[in-house]
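Hello,

I think I submitted the FE2/S2 (inorganic) cluster job twice by accident. Can you confirm which output corresponds to this input? Input:
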Amino acid sequence: MSKDSDIPGKPPATGLSRGLTNYGDAGFSLFLRKAFIKGAGYTDEALGRTVVGIIDTGSAYNPCHGNARELVEAVSRGVMLAGGLPVRFPTISLHESFSHPTSMYLRNLMSMDTEEMIRAQPMDSVVMIGGCDKTVPAQLMGAASADVPAIQLVTGSMLTGSHEGTRVGACTDCRRYWARYRAGEIDEATIAGVNDKLVPSVGTCSVMGTASSMAIVTEALGMSLPGSASPPAVTADRIRAAERTGTAAVALGTSKITPSQVITPKSVENALRALLAIGGSTNAVIHLTAVAGRLGIPVDLARLDALGRETPVLVDLKPSGSFYMEDFDAAGGVPALLRELKPLLHLDALTVTGRTLGEEIEASGPGFPQEVIRPMANPIYPQGGIAVLRGNLAPGGAIIKQSAADPRLMRHEGRAVVFEDAADLAARIDRDDLDVTADDMLVLKRIGPKGAPGMPEAGLLPIPKKLARAGVKDMVRISDGRMSGTAAGTIVLHVTPEAAVGGPLAYVRNGDRIRLDVPARRFDLLVDEAEMARRRADAPVTSPTAPRGYRKLFLDSVTQADLGVDFDFLRPPAP
Ligand code: FES
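Support: Only one job matched these inputs. Its output is below.
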């Protein structure tokens, strides 16, 4: 159990007595605290209950959390039904499309806000309401570090829409229609019409993007209630999940099960299995690495790849498959998935309910016929969605979402067409005189953790316009950045170390040859070491920094992708 300051001679602090403000007299601190909160109309009876903090990340800038008010209300109801006292409080909220330069730049800041507000304020347990891509990772990271009993509630996915009879959803279809528009296949009026239909309700992206992946992974990790990952945002099931989460949070405040008891090497491996089996977002690898890293649990890329070789993709959702999150929910959600994965899981891993994952799978019943979550004998893809690559271009590793890539390009050698940074890409990618063919490999530098900064989701380089117009749909694209979980293509990501700190990627030149061999897990620049040494000596790389503020903190402290892009000082000291 985590315990802050107590009144000397009294039992361990609970409820409002936890974490007293330091006035040099603990009794007076509690007296003062009660006096202030009574100004809001609370009685002593209410203030004596188990206190459940509820993190409200509702924001008009965050439509993915557009149901936060209803969820807070339902969680509060669940808390009170169980005899607890709900106390709502705000933290930073991040939406993908409203965060400059990228939400990943702010994830660690949100995790610090979450950690410190959980630690600073008195609560026996906390319900963290999040959903949009970086919010759930930030909350799990903060909760892991604060180590106060915590339970995650996701806002739930948005509904799907319909454009002229075609079912559409964010954001795989956003990218698909935009690619068609760039290629001249659809006109201005059509793309404007699609824009109205892609996001038909509040909630998180409706495909297996990062938000859906993290929701599922969190349930497999044991940090949210069984069955709570998948109900869409605007459904009665989502509200019921919130009420149940509130009730469970009161029990958690009593059982005092902390995140460090739930997030263990076994539960992290269960989460990675789930991620591989859903064809989930590559971003979730970074986020899980950061969450586990807060508790000193390493996520080893070699182990991830080994898990991937024996964990097939079972969930038929875009971008790897064809369905959407509401279909996954109707098919039984995470309990149905974990039932199929059962032989591969650590069933003795503890969850926030106080029961093990195995007990929860048993309690979820036998399932029913459906076509979204496949049995192990009939997978969507024979291996896990994500493969780990090694080679002289990525000594610290790189990854590829093989389940969403073009099988023809899994073994490919080509000429590098290099863009030095995002501005260079924007300036030249669509020029008619760009020297590029469909067999080349597009290389984008300096979009890694320090390079952009914040490792933006710019790894899905657009197909050069002249090739797109000629019908080219996919090419090998390589960067030290990330890619939205909703995207598809033969995209090599997270090349580590990044170009901005002098990784080998910094020294790739136009015309170099690169060999990609996904089955062999190799990724090599076909340039000899003597030439690479010459290039390093000719143009040494200076790591970026900033004069002040959060940007300075970020650039001075952020780690590479293999450590989760967390700040080095937020990870526990090495043993
Ligand atoms: Fe929020 Fe996709 S933009 S989940």
